Amino acid sequence: MSAPRRSARLHAVRLRPRSLIALVLVGAVGVAAFGWPFLAPPTSQLSAHAQDAPWLFAGLLVLLVAVVAATISESDLGPKAVAMLGVLAATGAALRPIGAGTAGIEPMFFLMVLSGRVLGPGFGFTLGSVTMFASALLTGGVGPWLPFQMLAMGWFTMGAGLLPGAVRLRGRAELLLLGVYGFLAAFAYGTVMNLAGWPFMGATASNISFDAHASVPANLARFVAYCLATSLGWDLGRAVCTVVLTLVLGPAVLRALRRATRRAAFETAVTFEPQERSPDGYGGSPSGTQAVKHPT
Predict the structure, then answer these.
(1) Where is this region: Disordered (predicted)?
(2) CATH topology of domain 17-264
(3) Taking the model in full, what pTM does it have?
């Protein structure tokens, strides 16, 4: 059997209209959950309960991420895609603790970029969320920050699946594109996760903590100072690590993922059709049927 042509891209998960609606919904709520310090007026009840708001949004995001994962799985997540999801999620969860606490060296991010690129945005969002959940269980990192991490990693991996040139762009140009995306997205991930933890600071650091009574420009200046003081070095390490691993290991990993995707034939269904026997009574299966693969 010849390899599939490059004119078509194989999808582990095809996003149906209901899945797209669920993704848009969780994205809108996620933006509100991360950005509420800049969206809520100082006089609102949400700002008045600044210490409780992250817990509220954490509980809400748990439900919404679960709804999105269930919706995508109902759309087209067959057994082969589930197997691929399990292998990649387990690999990502195992990679995460390798550089924990060491200048932001987190090798799981490059695997998420390459997996999202090959397997598409729908699979990418599911993979990112599941991987972060599995790694939290593995490392004991379960807390109110976990739903934010799951959503942010889902966005991170889904974004790689939305990059242009998924069918025809190959070689150095593709690696350069993935490297640039990985660098910028690593900083974006760190920034949105800072938004999730920043309101918890309260008055512990008066110059950079969230002030529920301050104006949006004043809080924005505090947040920038918070990012520079607490996470710039970590985010830079994560970004550089992602770029280096993408450029060095990217060609081999991309080939392996694409080969596995072709062999899995996610969009091909196996059915059984009658097979004619030869005049001498031989040829064909004992039941008179043969397995035939049909594109779905």
Answers:
(1) 274-296
(2) Arp2/3 complex 21 kDa subunit ARPC3 (1.10.1760)
(3) 0.75
